[in-house]
Write a structure and sequence with these properties.
Layout lengths: L3 E5 L1 H7 L14 E5 L2 E7 L2 E7 L3 H14 L4 E7 L2 E7 L4 E6 L3 E7 L3 H19 L3 E6 L2 E6 L1
Antiparallel strand pairs: 1-2, 3-4, 4-8, 5-6, 5-9, 7-8, 9-10
Length: 150
């Protein structure tokens, strides 16, 4: 089984800016290799945790290096079904922290505000549904995919 997937970065960067008119000329492609991981979502008392874990040592190290270099950026999750985005969530309703773990990383998005916590947890439920039903999901930081779960 492959330990990474090749994705075109502009797909995720354009999702960060919202809906914008199409450019007059096609932008240059910008490909990157993203580690394949197992993605697990967990509700916690004041938000959610996303656990990205990789079996392969090189994929794990790549994931951790991406997390370190992009720390502090906006976290988001994009899920695709047959190449079409069906779920795109910006985790902006709380404070997101990224911690490297032995198997990969853990992204915690928490808020002391009850409404923000409920919004974040609802996103977690939708993400869990996408994962359960076979979507290909990408975790991104500042629009850059850091891991892929297909």
């Amino acid at each position: 089984m492959a330990t990474s997937i090749l994705v075109e970065r502009s797909t995720f960067a354009s999702a960060q800016t919202g809906s914008a008119p199409a450019p007059a000329t096609a932008p240059a492609t910008n490909w990157c290799a993203v580690p394949r991981c197992e993605l697990r979502v967990e509700k916690c008392k004041d938000g959610v945790k996303l656990h990205c874990s990789c079996e392969e040592e090189i994929a794990c190290a790549t994931l951790q290096n991406l997390c370190r270099s992009l720390a502090g950026g906006q976290c988001s999750v994009t899920c695709q079904w047959n190449g079409i985005t069906v779920f795109d969530c910006k985790l902006v309703c709380g404070n997101c922290k990224i911690e490297c773990t032995e198997e990969g990383c853990c992204i915690s998005c928490c808020s002391g505000d009850q409404a923000c916590c409920e919004i974040t947890q609802a996103c977690c439920e939708a993400l869990a549904c996408c994962l359960k039903n076979g979507c290909c999901c990408f975790v991104c930081i500042s629009g850059t995919p850091i891991c892929c779960c297909c």
